[in-house]
Input
Amino acid sequence: MSETDPAARAFEDLCAEMTVLRRSVEALPQAWRDNRPPDYTEDLARVVKAMNAVSTRMKAIEDTPTLKMTPQAYGQGIGVTARSVKNCTLSSAGYERIANIS
Output
């Protein structure tokens, strides 16, 4: 076969392409090892632990009776407390006056 024979030239080109392909395939395992993504297991475990702690705190907050009260009930509670404090203060003031008279 001569150098100008198209079949011989095509065969040589095919051999060159196969050599490049074989070298590329052989290099794949090392490339995979070199470019392996980082292991986020520990980071994700910390995130999950923190989210569980937040969830526990949120559940405790959500379960408080104050958050379940209507605005009207909350206002009534404030009124009852204010009257109780006022009565207690008046009682204490009256007691001190009686004590000062004696």
